[in-house]
Recover the amino acids of this structure.
């Protein structure tokens, strides 16, 4: 009987902690929308964070996008050749990269690299009381630290997605060229022949949503870190795991909504 009561207490406490976390994250996100339009605007910090998010991720995004383009092309060719549709390979790769692979791969890579970085950085500032010192110095730490980072991820991840898609298409072209010796102009014409404006628009929306999610989750976990250095590692790990999970959920929801729009 005591064991049952103890298990019931643990379950109840876990449920309370879950809903409490959901409510705190909701308030955290709502505070971002309140602070983003208020003065002062920290333009210099926004540029610095955009540099950290964008330029310092180019090497990893370049390598990942290039490999994705080559591997996806090599895997798709045998199946298309069985049906005598090898000429459709550029269109298939274009649709896959623009509509799905480009935003998703970029979002997951950035969730691992940028989400963990933001969570660890803000978590370290929290446990070393640097954020408290900013509050004492009449500086709004939420405005300076959180708003600038969320804006930077929301702005730069769509740019990185476009770059990843272009690099992936070039990697795919090199694979096609090594087999068929086709021109790059003909390849890109075929790749974009079946892509519509709505596909590009949905891809951009996905990237913005993914970037916003990475920024909010990373900042929330780091800003509310505790338990010293152990809490910093925990915040970074939770930022990565939760960001990736939410990206998959958002991918599914956005695809369903876009398909519904196309149907009507």
């Amino acid at each position: 009987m005591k064991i049952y009561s103890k298990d019931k207490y643990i379950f109840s406490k876990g449920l309370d902690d879950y809903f409490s976390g959901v409510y705190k994250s909701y308030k955290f996100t709502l505070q971002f929308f309140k602070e983003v339009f208020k003065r002062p605007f920290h333009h210099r910090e926004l540029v610095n964070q955009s540099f950290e998010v964008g330029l310092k991720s180019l090497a990893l995004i370049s390598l990942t996008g290039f490999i994705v383009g080559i591997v996806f092309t090599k895997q798709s060719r045998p199946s298309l050749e069985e049906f005598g549709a090898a000429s459709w390979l550029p269109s298939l790769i274009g649709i896959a990269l623009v509509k799905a692979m480009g935003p998703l791969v970029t979002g997951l890579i950035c969730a691992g690299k940028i989400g963990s970085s933001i969570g660890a950085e803000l978590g370290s500032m929290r446990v070393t009381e640097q954020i408290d010192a900013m509050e004492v110095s009449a500086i709004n730490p939420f405005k300076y630290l959180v708003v600038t980072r969320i804006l930077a991820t929301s702005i730069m991840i769509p740019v990185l997605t476009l770059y990843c898609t272009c690099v992936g298409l070039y990697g795919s072209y090199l694979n096609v060229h090594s087999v068929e010796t086709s021109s790059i102009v003909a390849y890109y014409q075929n790749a974009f022949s079946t892509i519509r404006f709505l596909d590009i628009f949905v891809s951009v929306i996905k990237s913005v949503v993914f970037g916003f999610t990475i920024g909010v989750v990373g900042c929330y976990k780091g800003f509310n870190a505790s338990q010293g250095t152990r809490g910093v590692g925990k915040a970074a790990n939770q930022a990565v795991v939760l960001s990736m999970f939410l990206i998959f959920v958002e991918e599914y929801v956005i695809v369903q909504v876009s398909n519904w729009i196309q149907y009507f």
